[in-house]
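Final report, results section. Input specification for complex C-07:
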Amino acid sequence: MGAYSLEDLLTYHEVDMFLKKEAEILDSGDFESWLALLEDEVRIQVPVRLTREKGALSDTSGSMEYMLEDKETLRLRIERLKSEYAWAEDPPSRIKHVIVNLMVDANDGERIHARYVIIILRSRGESTETDLLFGRRSDILKKTPNGLKLVNRVTVLDHSVLGTKNLSFFI
Amino acid sequence: MSIVAERRETVIERIRTQVLPEEGKIPFFIFSDPEVYELEQERIFSGCWLFVAHESEIPNPGDYVTRSMGRTKVIVVRGEDGRIRVFLNACRHRGMRLCRAELGNTSHFRCPYHGFTYKNTGELIGIPYQKQVYGERIDKSELSLIQARCESYRGLVFATWNKEAENLEEYLGDAKWYLDLVCARDEMEVVGHPQIWRVKTSWKIPSENFQSDAYHTLFSHASIAKVGLAPTMDFAYSGYQIDLGKGHGLGLGMPSDKPIFYESLFDEYAKHLNPEQVEVLRKMKNMHGTIFPNFSFLISAAFYKGRLLSHTTIRLWQPVAHDAIDVISFQLMEKHGSEEWKTLTHELYVLTFGPGGIFEQDDAENWTNIFETAQTVGAQDFALNYTMAMDKKPVDFVGPGKAYPGKYSEENARSFYRRWKELIVGEV
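Structure output:
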């Protein structure tokens, strides 16, 4: 923990506002606006999490994911959600992306590294049960003339068995 | 008669009189009744061959994965001798779960409760304070891990608790010819690790769907055609539904204008398959089936990033309770595929299947909603309609089994429930 400059505080605030705004856009289902927050070369990954013995190799799969996205696959998913046949989200789920424990580092001027905990809550239909997913995120954001854009995102969920019937939403 | 026994007799009688595959009648209650689930655990999941792992998951001595047979937890391990064995995941002393990781490599399993230690070939080799506490009164050779029968076919490891069961190849029977296309067209390997997610439904609903329900793709998966991954909404209509007997069955979509595998792969396929099998692969649009009770496979094609290609998945619909399954879904990949094939086919799998797959996410919506209705008293004794394509006759086909023309059929579902009923009530 060192001393913080005013610029550090402004960057932290900018990242914090970006992530919260992004969450609000996703939760509102405005996926076109969400796409506009992503750089064209964006990559989004959600690797499979594993239950392994302490001290064993990585407990995150290096070769299988729940999501493995670039801008083209994200566009496909969004086009599909807009069709009249995307039953998993019609009627839509009510979803909240909650962002906490934000830390901002590796600020090399153009690229910003943000690490935080993501909590995703889903309510669907008349069910009183809540789908709950949580994990750790690592984002790389880029400063552009139009504000911050997402370049890379890895979300490592804490579940080795996902307690949700599907991922018909964006993690 | 006790209340429990009476309840069981009532359920068996309801199954006997209401599960009528020949009339196309399957009542709601068999999907949700806890007593039906108990009967299945005893009479199906204790007696049938059950898929537990793919050999490529545990290539080296000491490699293991933990899985379930029905709801019984087991360790699938390759011993120091190179042989794969399946053990009850429980210590012989107090029954504590021996292995609580889902995969790893170990020369021995040590119980966390009292420290009993077993080799990865199952023999008990260590008891703490053995001399002081047991003296000469314990024979370690009688306390090896409890072992299930275990056999492999083309890399697929199956196990059963049934000592009387026919051997695996006999059990698979006519399904082998088609499993070769899925699992032995090249050296096929599991990509990384399985995706696992929990769905509130009955294992029978997806097991039946994969072998007998090409029809749902027309509507459930219409979005796939809308975004251009499939040419038309009826992409799964043409082809055959093939009844493989013993509750096994599949749908084989054909013909495809162009191969759904890269041309360069066919040299490899020709080394492993006979010419008739290679020809079927060449003309295949898709293939999806189930080995009774709960192991399914799928080869699914799509136009993706400007190319026609396909991915292959195998999966378990693993019952965890009467109202829940874990879907354990693996991608299988050719060892000798080009880097481009491997990259694109992997992207396609994650995009279209698994919990986030744009095919599969709509299936889960169907399966959970059906299950919710099946749990309601008002619905339980009503029969669902399974009469589709009842009058169709089998036609000649190059592979084994009874091949019915046109994939929109419920012939296989009727066979699936005939086999299910036979095992539960002992007659059809």
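The CA atoms of residues 113 and 291 of chain B lie 38 Å apart. The interface with chain A takes residues 100-104, 191-200, 219-224, 226-227, 229, 305, 326, 331, 346-347, 350-351, 354-356, 358, 360-362, 364-368 of chain B (CB under 8 Å). This concludes the modelling results for the funded period.
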